[in-house]
Amino acid sequence: MEAEEEPFAAALMSVDEIWFLFTSFIQSVLTPGWRQNQILIVLGLAVACYFLHILSGRVIENQVRAREGWSKWQLRMIVQIKRRMGLIWFAVLSGGLYLVMQQVTWPSRSYFIGLAATLAVVWTCIAYAARFVRNRFLRRLVTWGLWIYATLYFVGVSDEVSEFLDDIALDVGDFHLSLLTLISAAVVIGVFFTVARLISSTTASSIRKNEDISPSMQVLAVKAVQITLYGFAFFMGVKAVGIDLTGLAVLSGAIGVGLGFGLQKVVSNLVSGVIILLDKSIKPGDVISLGETFGWINALGARYVSVVTRDGKEYLIPNEDLITGQVVNWSHSNEYVRLDIFFGTSYGCDPHLVRKLAIEAAADVDRVLSHPKLPVCHIVGFGDSSVDYILRFWIRDPTGGLTNIRGNVYLALWDVFKENDISIPFPQREVRMLEDT
């Protein structure tokens, strides 16, 4: 029973120590003297810097509006500077005042002003350094965590607060998980993730610029680098704060089995995505048909493939469907695509002339290839009222659409047949009225 009360008693002792330091500081501030004067000076500087923040923000905004041609990264930098102008002004003014007071009076009479200047500089640096963290929630967590730690460190109460947070813990056998460990792990992992993201972005850019690597292998290499770096960052962050993962081996194994049964489709799509990238069956830019969906591959994801159709719709097709289903890849081995259209002419028209005119009409249409694959026209049958033909031609840009090119070829046939008196028959029916007998 006494062993169970020890952590609670230690936590109460830490709270008492922190409360004693806080009340002592408040009493010293309320007592007339140089400490109180320094606090009043700091508050006065804060009010002055607030108004300077407003005025300088307007000046910066007017300068930006008056000048054109700013790039995105320049505008983002200016926005961040504008947001932190109050803190920058406070760091400059308090730092300058601290240096002056160090020369004209006793150093102890400017201690709090120097502390405020130091904190302002540190907070500013942390705010700008945290911009490298892309995730908004993680960025705020890292920023506030570092701000609080820097404040406690320079104030000189970091040891007492760390002891208090470490006393709030969950102990299971040899496993010790405290609130301090969780906060430290979140901040450290956030920093490691930021470094991993910067390295992966640079590596991914280099891989995409390498023309010797196919697009599908580029995607696979980028994903492999990202998974490796982020996994390494997570485990390094956990180990850096001293968390022993061996105590969670059994629990993580049980959770893994449960996730394996519950997330079968997710795992199947992940494995299917890796297979697609390895066998190079589809790659970004390929034109595919899957059921009623026809479009080109926009992106290959870990779980799905993004297919954009001609009408602007973007379909997110699970990777498993591309492995188990029948997929028509119009540009798998080469970029040439053959299209067929059918038409018929009357029996009174010369079939040799019809075939010649049809080939010439198709060859004159934009996007239809005349080399190395020429259009061809063949008779496919003798119908009830027409001689039936098939016209075959080739294109090399299926992403430009198939229906529109077919329509243009039909229009070209209509024009050339009209100029050469080639008639296109249509069904005719004769109705007889019989008299009553």
From TrEMBL:
Mechanosensitive ion channel MscS domain mapped to chain residues: 266-332
Keywords: Membrane, Transmembrane, Transmembrane helix
Listed GO biological process terms: transmembrane transport
Transmembrane domains' residue ranges: 39-60, 81-99, 111-130, 137-155, 175-199, 220-239, 245-263
Cellular component per GO, a single term: membrane
Domain of life: Bacteria
Start and end residues of each Mechanosensitive ion channel MscS C-terminal domain: 343-424
InterPro entries: MS_channel_C (IPR049278), MscS-like_channel (IPR052702), MscS_channel_2nd (IPR006685)
Protein name: Mechanosensitive ion channel
Protein's organism: Roseobacter insulae
